[in-house]
## 1
Amino acid sequence: MLEQSLLNQLKRGCELLGLTLADEQCQKLVAYVMLLHKWNKVYNLTSIREPEQMMARHIIDSLSVLPYITSISLLDVGTGGGLPGVPVAICQPQTRVSLLDSNSKKTRFLQQVKAELALDNVTVVHGRVEQVSLPKFAIITARAFASIDDIIQLAGSHCEEGGKLVLMKGTYPEEELAFESTDFHLHDVISLNVPECDGERHLVRLIKD
């Protein structure tokens, strides 16, 4: 059965990441993959088609950043199908997660995910990040959304003072780290070891001055 296979895959990934999730959280993550797979056929949410690949390259990849998301408010910019925001919301119910995307099909899908998985800590925002009116957030995250410079320019104003940009990158972003900003400084770059994912993964953290 596909759901059981995905559940086993998720549990192996969590074990390798050193994460402990409740059974209900694991079930919701599997249900999320099933929704992503179902809606992807019509809405083209991701180029990845197979549920097992979605679990590896989307869910387990997103879970690898959980230790670095430690605050009560998170804005996920250019969230697409809800990554990493939905996995964060499932695993950290105490964090208020806002999912922002300018694509109305994707935000319709996210409203469905919020309803079906009963994610009371999630707010879905349809709009462009530089145009929407939002409260300030402790953490702003983005996964394969834009360059560091662009993210600072587009989303930096939504970050509270002392807050962080937590940006998911592939290979070490040498050139991007030469960003020009007087509002943010580089905190660190963390090399992530993500089970079942080929290629490099890095997390860039910047702090708002």
## 2
Amino acid sequence: MKLEDLSEEKAENLLLNFSKNKFDDFSLLMSVYKNDEFTAFKRAFVSVLENTVLPTEVVIIFDGPVNQQIEYWLEKIRQQTGQWIRIVRFKINHGLGKALQTGVIKTRNSIIARADADDINVNNRFELELNFLKKHPSVGVVGGQVKEFNQKIGDGALRIVPTDDVAIRKRLPFRNPFNHPTVMFRKELVLNVGNYQSHAGLEDYDLWFRLLHKPEIKSANLKQVLVHMNVGNDLYARRGGNGYVTEYTNLKWRMFMRHYISLGAFIVSVIGLAGTVVTPPKVKKTIYLLLLRK
């Protein structure tokens, strides 16, 4: 994927023609915090504007103070698009789980699409997912494939996830079966299982576990790449940490208590993750690419 500088002219043209877009009854939910860069955020938001179908509202959670350039630019967009963007402000950073929990409650539509503040959505992402949910009313959450990129070095690995409900449920006890920035889900079902919760680094994995614990709720991933995910140079160094291990252990224990995994699988998975915490970043990167990506 070629990354090009986003011109002011391109952004202005998209906003000038905003009313000519096709809209559908779904909400887009984003969370922004202090470390999100303006250029990456702007590129991500323009990828939303470029989609073949737009949401009728965008709910953005400011998880504590954010980059002032982001604030000013969003205010400019709000002046041109009316009430299309709604911003909810937290005085302090509460973390992604709390931000998304609040965002789900604040949305007005029955279908919610997630988007991250620095990823690029392909231009027909929302249309593909909406059409799938309309054709499959039993599906509660749908996602898709991801291709990683680095702003300095270009394309990276593919994050391949299973596409059918059976395969997704088979992967769920061992690995997250969804690429979080690609998902679109039904609000009522997510609220019924307790919404997002504050499990740092595992907010979505925990939610899918609770959602798919109900056998009547089906799931799917589209085979197409729906999002180009922005990964920084420190991705592999940042993976793990004592807090993450604690959250992961607690999640796996809940899976064991609900008979999703055996005691042996619980022990092996926790020990395996704990081992990655002390693994040098270069070795961690190799493992990550060989075992977790294609």
## 3
Amino acid sequence: MTTSSLFLLLADGRFPAGAHAHSGGLEAAVAAGRVTDLATLEAFLAGRLATAGLVGAAFAAAAHRAVTSGSAVRGSTLALLDAELDARTAAPALRTVSRRQGRALLRAGRAIWPEASFDDLPATPGGAHQPLVLGLLCAAAGLSRAETATVAVHGTVTGAASAAVRLLGLDPYRVQALLVGLAGRCDGTAAAAARAADDPPERLPAAAAPLADIHAEAHATWEVRLFAS
């Protein structure tokens, strides 16, 4: 496969990493009456880009940098990145989700690129956070740091947008048009994340969304739900 094809493969929501089972917090936002139509969905997605999108993409790009820079301390760098991302994820439910998605992504990565340096990931309980695993997968696929950030940002909005069609019965064509309208903002977020990856782990973006944290904790208590998060 060419690098362009691999880029599309990793950005595809059908990649077998379990992303389709998660709404990115949208299910709880819909239940709370905060997302009801295309306009409020757009605001929700813009908020995710500015917070979870920027942070996740910066950490994915930083993980990519750690394993492609030739550093002899990449294992300790990845461990520090994992700890810093854990500190930025205030809600225990979201920490659990991130590590669960990381395990699923790592399983796919080991099957596709068995020669890659996944053993450099920290042996933390529950597995490494998803953005770190994504950074290593993108490096194994030969993608650049900027492409890695773009894949991460893309997943931040497309998963929630797809969930909106199921949760709200929105017109899928209009939802796709909304995503096209957000493309420039996605590119800008990815570029900012790729630049931030040059900073030490403790200086990476720490944008927070307290209401999303509250929604995640409430969602985790539901006995019946359509999405895992």
## 4
Amino acid sequence: MFSHITVGVTDLARAGRFYDALLAPLGFRQRKTEPDGGPEALCWIGANRLPEFFAHRPFNGAPAQAGNGNMVAFLAPDPGAVDAAYAAGMAAGGTDEGPPGPRPHYGAGYYGAYLRDPDGNKVHVVHRGDLAP
């Protein structure tokens, strides 16, 4: 469904440290980006290459601002990966929006955590046991 998802950040190095830490336990790795006429960006991909996740300074040059009601959710292979990603993200400058734990009101086997990146973008890491085969 998605080609890529982008969040605006004010400091690429800081965003890189945060998202490298958060996404490594989920199997995502940073890939090299090529200049394309837009602002400098960082990109992470999983085994399937798409969707891509980008962090970059806003194209219009204005300060990055987190959107109220916006959130990016990353799928984790198991609850342990949720725990690891949350802990790594918090250690890399994230702020808590809801610690790891079951969230049965979203479905049987739903286990997730919420945090914000250093720029205030809301991130959710989730294992969807309700979708297991």
